[in-house]
Amino acid sequence: MDKQHILNEIRRTATANGGDPLGTQKFLTETGIKQSDWHGRYWVRWGDALREAGLTPNCMAEAYDEGVLIAKLISLTRELGRFPVGGDLRMKGRNDPEFPSHTSFNRLGPKDQRVLSVAEYCRSHEGFQDVLELCPIVDDRTPHSNKKETGTEEIGFVYLIKSGRYYKIGRSNSSGRREYELTIQLPERANKVDEIRTDDPVGIEGYWHKRFESKRKNGEWFDLTSIDVKAFRRRKFM
User: Fold this and answer.
1) Which of 52, 171, 223, 236 is deepest in the core (most CB within 10 A)?
2) CA angle 52, 55, 60 (to 5 degrees)
3) 86 exposure class (CB count in 10 Å sphere: 0-12, 13-18, 19+)
């Protein structure tokens, strides 16, 4: 990738954006120029590329401090009334120019680690009990004994089971319960292949149904390949 081409694209997209330079994720979306095309080759930081293009980096173009990211998660949690999932971060980033790109939150780790970071912050600072109660349970280190009392949604499961040659993708609020219910209903024994823990079982079930739509046979039953099964099993929390 030619350096001058990247500089020209930085200026072009900034002009189209009212004079404000784009962050790295939006720049990739607009131009197809990946971070690997410039990072470590021409510039160390995106801000350096913007300065060489004659532009002033804005706060969205620079890396976000972890404390800022946690504060953004807390704010969005209050706005939604639940802890945000990946789709929430994407939508908020598209609609709010002051909100970081969803990829910025990768700095905090996967979803369960973000929950832990937010919960730890809320427990160590006053005035965040409401947010703490909205944090889903991710493991034994973050007990929320009052979850059922407050009516906050608990972690659910999206499961993959096999009966005969076909696979079923469904959801349940209790690990193993739905598998047992199906086992007593089907002519062939249903065996659980794997399950994904999630605080959005409806949305995650819908994601996998859509992903395997071309392989749907009847209702929630699919004719999956070993590669499809491996893709599902790689996900432990969504």
Assistant:
1) 171
2) 110
3) middle
Residue 148: pLDDT above 50?
A: no
Contacts of 169 (CB under 8 A, 6+ apart): 158, 159, 160, 205, 208, 209, 212, 220, 222, 232
| In the predicted structure, residue 219 carries a pLDDT above the cut 60 | yes
pTM of the model: 0.37
Every domain of the chain and the residues it spans: 3-52, 66-150, 156-233
**Of the candidates 21, 142, 124, 129, which has an alpha carbon nearest to the alpha carbon of residue 67?**
124
State the residue for tokens 């794997």. Answer: 194
**What confidence tier does 10 reach under pLDDT thresholds 50, 70, 90?**
very high
